[in-house]
Model the fold of this input.
Amino acid sequence: KKFIAEFGMSNYDNIKLGPGFEVNFDKTSLTNILQTRQAFITEDLDLELAHRPASASIRLLREEGVQSNMVVPLIMGDSVFGIVFFSSIHKHFFTQQHLKLSEKLIFEISGFMNRAYFTKVILSRITSGFSELVDQKDNETGDHIERMVKYSVVIAEGLMARNIPGYKVDRKFVLEIERNAASHDIGKVGIPDEILKKPGKLTPEEWEIMKTHVTIGSEIFRSFKEDLQVFESDFYKFAEEIARSHHERWDGSGYPDGLSDSEIPLSARIVAIADVFDALTSKRHYKEPFGFENSVEIIKSSAGSHLDPIIVEIFLERLEQFRAIYENTSI
Done:
């Protein structure tokens, strides 16, 4: 179990602890608020860091210049479902009056926030479950989704660590990849089984039908995104990008739009290599697995034609993590 930062606002640019930051329950004192449900003030973060030097969140806040903060729980019924932080660059900034006012404000808006948050959670869970059903319909096992999501996260984390110009990835981006990669093939729900499960090569006519799964999937998420803008303007943005563009190719020969290099959304380029690698190493109704080493060579040879060469570079840097996922998830 872990806490995940979802949204933040600030009047400065030096954000270290932003959306997507996550910390396990056993690595933070925030778990106390789940039991007490009591707001509190930390008046001096330097002093707090001295008492808890292993705290990554406090260290990041200090790197931002934050000196004190106020923490208020979001409560639904008898449970805490979220936490709101108020931060200041001054020590001893917050008072009990601030605390009472913030608790009152959070109480007043928590009803709407409850509905918005849980609507997002429910829709995300439904989407994930539906994606798994589609995956089981198309693949020999139900493990493809699990592996390719893990592969996608490894690539996204590798890009974040490298901080390459033109490949901007932060913790929020990694979180979006983790949440949305599973939905890449959701459009296959609209493809007839006799095509989807055909053991041999597809005819040209069948292949054209198969390719429509990307537009079917992106249209599903485009409609959702428009209807759910009341909750978040970019809700399902990543899912729509990934569903539509994960079969585009770096050299422009992919589908459905013939995009090339950086025209292809970064999210889709990341998922593409995860999807291709798992397809290569997995048994499908139309082929036997190629094996790990052979699949790696195919990925290497695809750099600059099918796949983004920078992302292939990250893939090779993180090859042992791919190997661990490959070996620890049944194929």
About this structure: The chain has a mean pLDDT of 84.
